[in-house]
Amino acid sequence: MANDRWKLADEMNRDRVKNQRGKWDVVARDMGISTALLRNIRSGKAPITYESEVAIERVFEWPEGKVQRLLQEAREATPSDGEPAAPQWSAAQRAKWRTMTPAEIVAEGKLVETKFGTEGRLAYLEAALAERTRHSTTDVASSKDSAT
Predict the structure, then answer these.
(1) pLDDT confidence of 145, banded at 50, 70, 90?
(2) Torsional class of 44: left (φ above 0), alpha (ψ -120 to 50), beta (otherwise)
(3) Is 87 left (phi over 0), alpha (psi -120 to 50) or beta?
(4) Would the pTM count as exceeding 0.70?
(5) How close are the terminal C-alpha atoms of the chain, in Å?
(6) 20 has a pLDDT exceeding 50
């Protein structure tokens, strides 16, 4: 994904779901472009032309300039190596991992990848595994202590 598209793609998806705009093919039709072109715009494989920028803002009912603002915010949050900075995991996130199933962790990891790239997803999965391992080791040690 182009290093400046992750924030735009995330905001478009959030808006699409929140406002029940339908599937991406419906959004593309409303924009007057193909589904493939919309996918390529979101992923960074196609340039954002003036026409596509205006169409995005029109369909999502965003104020003029929001697309450029999202792209700029993403560029500012992205290090020079082209990947967004790795996220920091909060105490709440670490606690959440302890209650999630492995399948839920993998699914959430895929969402992390859309924002932070492959390296971010790997960091997420490694952190979740470490937290679950640390927690299960603590549980085992606590149960041994209580048994004596």
Answers:
(1) very low
(2) left
(3) beta
(4) no
(5) 55
(6) yes
The phi-psi region of residue 84 (left if phi > 0; otherwise alpha if psi is between -120 and 50; otherwise beta) is beta
State the CB neighbour count (10 A cutoff) for residue 40: 15
CA distance 26 to 2: 24
Rounded to whole angstroms, the Cα distance separating 112 from 107 reads: 9
How long a stretch of residues is the chain? 148
Comparison of pLDDT for 66 and 5, the residue scoring more: 66
DSSP notation for 33-98: S-HHHHHHHHHTSS---HHHHHHHHHHTTPPTTHHHHHHHHHHHHS-TTSSPPPPPPPHHHHHHHH
How do residues 58-79 score in pLDDT, each as one tens digit? 999 999 999 999 888 887 775 5
